[in-house]
Amino acid sequence: MSLFASQRTEFLHHSRTAPEQFTHTQEWWLPNQTQVVVHAAGIIEFIPSEYEKGKGSHVLYSCGVHGNETAPIEICNDLVEALLAQTVTLTVRLMVQFANLPAMDIAQRFISENMNRLFCGAHEPQHNAERVRAAQLEQLTIAFFAQADDPSICYHYDLHTAIKDSAYPRFAVYPFLHDKAYSKAQLLWLAKAGIQAVLFSESPTTTYSYFSSLQCSVHSFTVELGKVKPFGQNDIADFAQARTALFDLVSVDSSHVTDSSLQGATDPSLPVLFRIKQMILRHAEDFKFHFSDDTPNFTAFNQGDVLASEYDEYGALLQSYTCVQDAEAIVFPNANVTLGQRALLTVVPVTEQECTFDV
User: Fold this and answer.
1) Model confidence over 143-198: pLDDT tens digits?
2) How far is Cα 14 from Cα 20, in angstroms, rounded to an integer?
3) Which of 27, 222, 274, 300 has the fewest C-beta atoms under 10 angstroms from its C-beta?
4) Domains (ranges, CATH) in the chain?
């Protein structure tokens, strides 16, 4: 089998099939003077020839935190291979992370536990591979963004696809900002990337995007690009808008992402906005939803509707969870999560006038 160090192509393939090749940092320059740094299996960085230390934008694309969410993995793989082949010219400092390589190999969400609940230190103690990898991702993310002088032009997009169908197939979660203003320019860029809805989180979490937002002070989002499908079965047309935006962001100076520069975008309006109303956790083994398994994300219910119930080992009701207002919609329902983890979010619409923006 050829080694990546000599072939210098098919990075994701080599990372998945022979990760032992990447126990030490590899570094070289492409003929176009782009510097390439491989930090570990599945983690690669590109530094353009004109990069001035500390200056300009730093962009991080992470994908495959859940191994069966294939469309973002395929997009990021295309980007990495285009950069290695020099068919795309890079003008920002870029890191691409293929996070959960073993889960990709078995086409499952995770091996031992949900990696997107293991950030902000939740990976301790590190008694399985996902916890070790989450800690590694944290360390490399901090080091990557620490090299930038201006975090306001630094970006982390943690790319996913959802388990369920959705009234808004492409949506993003804006991590809790601790009273800081939202970026209207980022919402406009997300709209340009085909994102139809944005959820404003209103509490700390242990997700990857919250970690980078909190610890690195960069613009950070969890981005859902559609529905889970096996490798090779994604319709590229469903992801064309997002793919173009993700490529364009790193092949031009990402400091261009401002309100004025986006006024000429095809659709300059903001995505539909929601704020998270309830976070419902699973506490009992017997946990049930009161809606069908195929109910799409963003299905709305009315005040008093029972969404979920928990029962003790004898079948006695322990607790029910109900809507607290009309037009309260469900997102990310999953009754099979580990005890203590989030089984459901509910969201309610919010207007632009109700939000505090940085412009």
Assistant:
1) 999 999 999 999 999 999 998 889 999 999 999 999 999 999 999 999 999 999 99
2) 9
3) 27
4) 4-270 (3.40.630.10), 280-349 (2.40.50.630)
